[in-house]
Write a structure and sequence with these properties.
56% of the residues lie in helices and 11% in strands. The protein has 7 helices and 3 strands, in the order H-H-E-E-E-H-H-H-H-H. Strand 2 and strand 3 form a beta hairpin.
């Protein structure tokens, strides 16, 4: 099982190699750079992978507010990066719930990448302004608080 620190390194490598910054980027731009199809729908947000051609599609509920859509996008992207899709069909409910908890925890690292936050903290005095971080990353203040606590651990 991958650790949060290992996942953060994977995130940094992926984002830097594709020249992706999370702040100032729309989820549609991030999806395009990662070669992921993004479809807005009235159904529950989820991810689908076509194993025949390896095409990945993230379905996002269009009824969600944009900040909630971003969180759902990063949650589904976490499932992709952790390769949860390749074996989730064979898991029981307990194991599926573990994958969901892991995606919930790790998606914070995608929504607010540590390497970007470090840069912002040095370039601006954002350390104590969770509201400005929330605005920059287009995520909820609650999510920013959770992520900063996660980083402190």
């Amino acid at each position: 099982m991958i650790t949060l620190n290992s996942f953060e390194l994977l995130v940094e490598e992926l984002l830097c190699s594709r020249n992706i910054t999370i702040y100032n980027s729309r989820i549609s731009e991030i999806a395009e750079k990662l070669n992921i199809n993004l479809i807005f729908t009235y159904s529950k947000s989820t991810v689908i992978k076509n194993n025949q051609n390896n095409q990945v599609i993230i379905l996002l509920n269009m009824d969600l507010e944009y900040k909630e859509q971003r969180l759902a996008f990063f949650h589904e992207l976490t499932h992709i990066l952790l390769d949860h899709l390749s074996f989730c069909d064979s898991l029981n409910n307990f194991e599926l719930n573990q994958l969901e908890r892991q995606a919930n925890e790790f998606s914070l690292a995608l929504a607010l990448p540590r390497h970007e936050l470090k840069t912002l903290f040095f370039s601006k005095s954002l350390m104590n302004n969770i509201y400005e971080i929330s605005d920059l990353y287009e995520v909820s203040v609650d999510l920013v608080e959770k992520r900063l606590l996660q980083i402190k651990k």
